[in-house]
Structures are given as structure tokens and as C-alpha cells.
Task: structure prediction
Amino acid sequence: NTKVYYIDEHDTDKIKEAAEIIASGGTVVFPTETVYGLGANALDEKACEKIFTAKGRPQDNPLIVHVADFDLSKYVTDISENAKKLMEAFWPGPLTIIMPKKDIVPLTTTGGLDSVAIRMPSNKIARKLIEFSGVPIAAPSANISGRPSPTTIEHCINDLTGKVDMIIGGEKCDVGLESTVVDTTGDEVVILRPGGITKEMLEEVVGNVSIDPAIMEKASEGLRPKSPGMKYRHYAPKAPLTIIKGDLNNVIKYVNEKTDELSNYGYKVGVMATDETIKKYNANIKISVGDRKESGIIAANLFDVLREFDKIDVDYIYAEGFSEEGLGLAIMNRLKKAAGYNVIEV
Ligand code: TXA
Ligand code: MG
Result:
């Protein structure tokens, strides 16, 4: 009972059909430039409850509200100067801004918080869907909670068939990692989740930007991420994943020794390599996530590669680490979460 339409932004009739589902309280999976989203009317409590049920998402994990118009006065009580500058610089695009909410936005949408996360996507299907439905659309990533976020329509079909009213799209997501989430309510802008808009890009617009210290390490008492979603295990493939960081020659040597040892016991080892290194691993199952020099490509491929390892059914996965500069911060944030913060320095 889930309708699936492979469409592009010119299929206005299909997008209107999807918009009617949203307007009448249903759920639609749709593409954005970051990852696919599982959308419902953000102002309709019952509709948003369907999102949590379909994903198996904890109730205290707030949703991002997607808009197509810069006028947010109906939804928020205040827009800080920093927020205004960031909206102007990066919207439409992969930046989500936390603002104090008005009562019209239900607590179901914000996971009980008095703030709301808002983003204007640049993807044309997403923009038309929001415009045609006439309401803001709450949309978390369109995966079952805990699995890697979906960057292709096939990922969404695998996870959510039978659980949502409609799935539309077809294109692979450009960015491939979820949006950067920032808190602009204090004097200094704080990154709560790194993403396609990097710290360096934000700093060009608003000066010094800090990073929530909890996001690159395992959550613990006293180190609790400000963005509720960041505390959950996420992006995880079924097999245990270990990141090996260090000089690449050492990484290759370490992984090859481990592969030999584990193979002797009959285990299947998978390696997440890069174009530069893939030939040097002796594991049977190895997938390149892209060219090390092209962090945009690595970001766009990461979740798909993690899902590939599940299809092949490996027992252990080793992944090369990356620098945490620029987009690398978001890449390593997702990879570390996928690995349960299991990182070995060699
Ligand atoms: O790129 C994206 O942002 C995608 C596409 C579909 O737009 N959406 C997405 O949503 O990644 P989701 O639900 O998977 O992640 C939302 C993140 C979570 O980490 C959540 O905790 C945080 O945003 N968040 C939402 N509202 C918040 C709030 N009021 N305060 C702090 N963090 C918030
Ligand atoms: Mg998500």
C-alpha cells in the first residue's frame, strides 16, 4: 500500500498528488540535496506521530521542519542576527537552524523542546512538495532508526515500504550527509551536527563558530550532545566496524594482518578502502568510498557503502580514517558513530 513514483522535478502532477497526501495528514518520502526525508505536516501532531512509528524513532528525538519561504514569523518567536545572516548566505541549502518555537509547532514535532529546527532545502522536488502542500514539512532522514541515512530511492524502498503512504524521487542525493545543524540563540553560533556546510564556511559569515564538544566522542555523563539525535547509535552496519587511523601504509599493513588472522578462523572481512589504496588490501571484500582527494565524493558515497556491506554479509569491517578538516569533520562524525567510536591509531 505504499505508492512508489520514480519522478523528476517536472512531474508536477505526481508532486501534487504527494502534496495532497501531506496536506491530509499522510506520510511521503521525498528527495533532498542531503538525504531522503520522511515527511508529514509539521503542524499536525497525528501526522508527525506517524513519522516516529514508521521509523521506530525515539519520541524525544526532534524533527527538522522544512520550509520553502523565508518568512518564518508564524513558527518562531525570534530570529537572531546570526540566524538572519546564515539564512541569507546558505538557504536554500544543507543548513538547519534552531530557533525558539511558537505554540503552533506541536511538541510532538520538537520532541518536547521549546525550540524548533528549520531548514529550507534546495532540491527542486522538495521545494515544490512544500509549496504545493501549503504547510511546513517535518522530515527526518527516511531510514529505519539506527540504519545509515538513505541517499538513494532504493534505500528508502528497502527500509520503509509498507510503512509510509508514498515514496517519490529517483535521483541520488548530491551531498549524501545530513544537513549541518546550528544553534544561533547564543552570542556565538554552535555546531550541533556537522554537515555539508562546514565550520569554515559558517565562519566566513558570522565570525567565530564553536562545535558542541560532545559530537566527536562517545556520549557519557557530563558529555551529552545538545542535539538529542546525536546521542543515539546510528548509521551502523550489522557487522562490527573499526576505523583504522594513521599513516596509510601502516593502516594497510594492520588491516592485512587482521584479515589474515580472521580469515584463518573462517570469518569474512570487509574493507572500506579508497581509490588510492583498494588494490593493496588482501581482503576478498573491499569497496572504495571514493578518491581521498575528493571529500565531496566520499561524503556522497559513505552511507551507500555502509549499506553495501550489509548486503554482502561480512563478519568484520575495517574502514580507513580521514582528516577532520572541512567536510572531513562531518564524514568522520558519521563514520565514528557507525563504528560505535571504535577507532584504532596505528
Ligand atoms: O539533511 C537533513 O537534515 C535531513 C533531510 C531530510 O533534511 N534530515 C535529517 O533529520 O537529518 P533527522 O531527524 O535525521 O535529524 C535531525 C537532527 C537530530 O540530530 C535532532 O536531534 C536535531 O536535528 N534537532 C532537531 N530539532 C532540534 C532542536 N530543537 N534542538 C536541537 N537539535 C535538534
Ligand atoms: Mg536521521
